[in-house]
Amino acid sequence: MRWQDLKNNPRLKENLIKRAETFKKIRYFFDTANFVEMDTPLAVRYGNPEPNLDLFKTEIQNEKGEKFKSFLITSPELSLKKILAGGFPKIYQMSKCFRNREPWNATHNPEFTLLEWYEVGITYLELMERVEGLLKDILGKEKMIYQKKEIHLSSPWLKISMREAWQKYALLDLNNYLNFDTMRSLAKEKGYTINEGETWSDWFFKIFLTEIEPQLAKENRPVFLYDYPKEMAALAKVKEDGLYAERFELYWSGMELANGYGELLNAEEQEERFKKEEAEIFKEKGEEREMDQDFINALSEGIAPCAGVALGVDRVVMLLTDSKDIAEVAPFLAREMY
Amino acid sequence: MASINEISKETILRLNGEIYLVTEFQHVNPGKGSAFVRTRLRGIKTGKTMELTFKSNESVEIVEVERRKMQYLYNNGEMYTFMDNSTYEQLEINVSLLEGKKEFLKEGLDVMVIKFESIPLSIQLPNKVAYKIIQAEPGVKGDTASGNVSKEATLETGHIIRVPLFIKEGEEIIVNTETGEYVERA
């Protein structure tokens, strides 16, 4: 039991205090920048249709015993965007999120703490600067050691587009491999396995995870990877070139720390993407999903151009305390409780 | 056929007609992506290492190999000699196949030798092994900067690992041979 660990392991105790301080610093950062903190529901009527995430499903009953499906959020994104539509320009939420069937390992737990924020009137590129500012503020050092590796925080962080990353590490122009056939032949030529039913994204990731992502982990500074192919747009806006989406991820020593978007605000396009994802979920898992029509209506009503990002707070505390395993910064993990 | 999810270190795969030994693997879930398994494979015939990523639901052909318990005897630098205690048959394994493992080989240690078509490919160490500490500074002050109160100590194999301050020269400790980390006093 971990409460005994707390008594015997001074480091765990220290880390939990640092965790609490981090929460305070985050709130101070946003409160002084005139953001309003939200605490939208953790149990909602409709789950986000994300084909690669599994939901915690439950059931809610009213006093008459009428039953409704209910889901724990994988992120507060849909609720927060409804608040944006309601006229709040700068909002944030720091709360638990739930992703079922995630690995129970050193960097994952099915219940984790996510910080998500939105700001009207800035671009996703400007948002990367804000993320950098927040983390420099929390970590408060020019350089730090994480797992024996020195990370420089003071110099500008590396910002590299997905196309540049492919050029730099795999010596390929990704623009030439944006369609099904060319990516398939590329993966095959490189010796990757090609199986029936696989998609463009599968081959993209086989190459990316082998040849590019490990190189990012070798950088001695945090890395923003931006402009993902539009197949991986999720809820991000597609750029004018029609090929890439306004999405970025922050990598830190090989860990994914944050995922941000120039937000897709076009209701019809959003509805279309949701339908496509719901079809994919049905095909993969046999699950029928209902769409959150209220969210589509909020988009139709109009939200001013904005950018938003989600940041894994447990992982930030891991960096801050030089912890290799989430167990060093969070005392109750699924892998111990079940 | 088996799922790539079932592989572990030392699994032998047949891919496009070639035989490979899995030397490293890692489950990766890229943000918003599906699950993948990143591997490092060593070609049995070529000896060449390559990296390859699979989708986590992919089927692969796992090849049955021979696993035999053998005892480590000695090495002459390049070649490490093992013996089957029931038949007294001896086998030499080249140091290049013992990366990350030779540091934990002590005389008399029982290991599993993995062979395919009678060619040795690799060995499997017991997960936890006791070693004598042959050299360690007295535990006065250690590296407390990172909050880890530990110091360096040399195992009887000559390998150096980090141990808690209270461990003294001459003591026996248990080491996890997979992570290379100190576990407890023996």
Automatic annotation (TrEMBL), chain A:
Gene3D superfamilies assigned to the protein according to its UniProt record, in alphabetical order: Bira Bifunctional Protein, Domain 2
Gene Ontology molecular-function annotations: ATP binding; lysine-tRNA ligase activity; tRNA binding
Domain named Aminoacyl-transfer RNA synthetases class-II family profile: residues: 26-331
Keyword ATP-binding: yes
The keyword Chaperone appears for this protein: no
Key words, A-Z: ATP-binding, Ligase, Nucleotide-binding
Pfam family, one: tRNA-synt_2
Any GO BP: lysyl-tRNA aminoacylation
One GO CC term, this protein: cytosol
Coiled-coil portions: none
Entry-linked NCBIfam families: genX, PRK09350.1
Protein's recorded name: Lysine-tRNA ligase
Native species: Candidatus Magasanikbacteria bacterium GW2011_GWA2_42_32
Lineage: Bacteria, Candidatus Magasanikiibacteriota
TrEMBL record, chain B:
Keyword Cytoplasm appears in the UniProt entry: yes
Pfam families in the record: EFP, EFP_N, Elong-fact-P_C
Main location: cytoplasm
Stored InterPro entries: Elong-fact-P_C, NA-bd_OB-fold, Rib_uL2_dom2, Transl_elong_fac_P/YeiP, Transl_elong_KOW-like, Transl_elong_P/YeiP_cen, Transl_elong_P/YeiP_CS, Transl_elongation_fac_P
GO molecular function: translation elongation factor activity
SUPFAM superfamilies reported in the protein's UniProt record: Nucleic acid-binding proteins (SSF50249), Translation proteins SH3-like domain (SSF50104)
Domain of life: Bacteria
PROSITE patterns from the UniProt entry: EFP
HAMAP family assigned to the protein according to its UniProt record, in alphabetical order: EF_P
Protein name as annotated: Elongation factor P
Organism field: Candidatus Magasanikbacteria bacterium GW2011_GWA2_42_32
Gene: efp
